[in-house]
Amino acid sequence: MHSLPFGRGKLDFEVPPTMRVDVAEPKPYPPVTDIKRAVLDALKAPLGAKPLRELAKPSSKVCIVITDITRACPDGALVAPMLSELDAAGVSDGNITILVAVGMHRASTPEEKVEKLGRRIVKRYRVIDHDAEDPKALVDLGLSANKVPIIFNKIAHDSDLLIATGIVEPHQYAGFSGGRKTVAVGVAGEKMISYTHGPVMLDHPKTRLANIEGNLFHEAIEEIAQKAGLKFCINVVKNGDQKICAVAAGEPKAVFAELVDAARKVYTVPLPHRYHAVICGVGYPKDANLYQASRGLSHIFFAPSPIVEDRGLLAVAAPCEEGAGRGAGEERFFKAMKSAPDMQAILRDARAHGCKPGEHRAFVMAKVMEKNEVVVVGSRCPDVVKAMHMTPMRTMGELFAYVEKKFGKKARVLIVPRSLQTLPVVRS
Predict the structure, then answer these.
(1) Model pTM?
(2) Are 118 and 225 found together in one domain?
(3) Are 139 and 18 found together in one domain?
């Protein structure tokens, strides 16, 4: 019996006995036994920076940028101790803004803010969402070294002390998330997100999962975060059981370097060969819509070495209660996929004319679907899946019957229960 995360629960299934099946899961890695103590220790001895209570002054305007509901970052556990440090420095509640880094996704609901931070923090402090489309809420800082237009949240930029939370895990564009990314993408303007997520960046051969050397995307967002004034961050790494296994705080580059080393150890899974079919799980909150769930598929496709055979099959199990997604970016993703006659049309148009935030996910998925068939299992919106040139299937049994028909009874199948927290690498 195998299982995949599915919403807040799991999806159990059996694989036909004739198929050659491997399961890619991060190796067991010990979790932090006392999260509160680990966070306090990290804040007490930050990497490459003074403690927050020394960085802040009573008159400081402080902005804490946190991840949105689509990221499984334990923001409440990270933010509460930082607020205590700021309180010890004499910073008043009214001088603190907690900014939710929604990027081009929909605004977070009041309930989601409480889920992220806890009711006490939400009631006591100013907690607002970034708006990438409001010119009055943005500031233009010119161009980066890579010609990226740096357009950024004004509250974050104008603060005396800019802080960010984040989770460090493999990321198909940035190499690894965390460190600089919560700020450099999550509270960026639409024009900046459009450029960093456009063909110039995403077609580059070094823009790949787990790669930061020569990665234009990584270099751009690192420079952007620095120009935006990011002084301090606290990040975590989670193990395969979704338990926190590493915490670091301090200067963003130092924190990122420290936790990338830990993340490589946690997530790398060596594999013996390529596969006819790869079946992914992403789990809540990523599988709430197709925009986020599709990340599991592209994550596998852009692995450091090819995992699925050309003309092979990629599948994700996801309920997708929100359909393609409800934000501006998600709606653009749906429209771009639905209106295109084929994947080549999406690629040609984006390379010729560029693409807006959200449309970039259509560009990425077109690169995936140009070479592989994509199946979505268990979605509550099969019509939406079909409209986007993907194949909806009701059950895992239906999927395996299709795999057998397409590749034979002895098909090579890889199951990746936590695809976004797994770094699969073919040994050869």
Answers:
(1) 0.82
(2) yes
(3) no
Mean pLDDT of the chain: 93
My answer on whether 186 and 42 are in the same domain is yes
Residue-number span of the structural domain to which 91 is assigned: 35-266
Distance (Å, rounded) from C-alpha 91 to C-alpha 65?
Answer: 17
Q: Is the preceding peptide bond at 285 cis, omega within 30 degrees of 0?
A: yes
- Number of domains present in the structure of the chain: 2
Q: Which residue has the higher pLDDT, 104 or 30?
A: 30
Degrees, nearest 5: CA angle 359-361-366: 100
On whether both 115 and 39 belong to a single domain, the answer is yes
Task: Kindly state the tokens that stand for 245.
Answer: 């296994």
**β-strands 138-143, 149-153: how paired?**
antiparallel
Per mean pLDDT, which range of 46-60, 244-258, 344-358 is the poorest?
344-358
**Full strand arrangement of the beta sheet holding 20-23:** 20-23, 412-416, 275-281, 308-317, 373-377, 391-393
92 plus 156 within the same structural domain: yes
Residue 66 and residue 160 in one domain: yes
User: Of 266, 281, 299, which one is at a domain's C-terminal end?
Assistant: 266
- Do 23 and 417 contact (CB within 8 A), yes or no? yes
**Looking at residue 287, which CATH number applies to its domain?**
3.90.226.30
Residues 169, 281, single domain; the answer is no
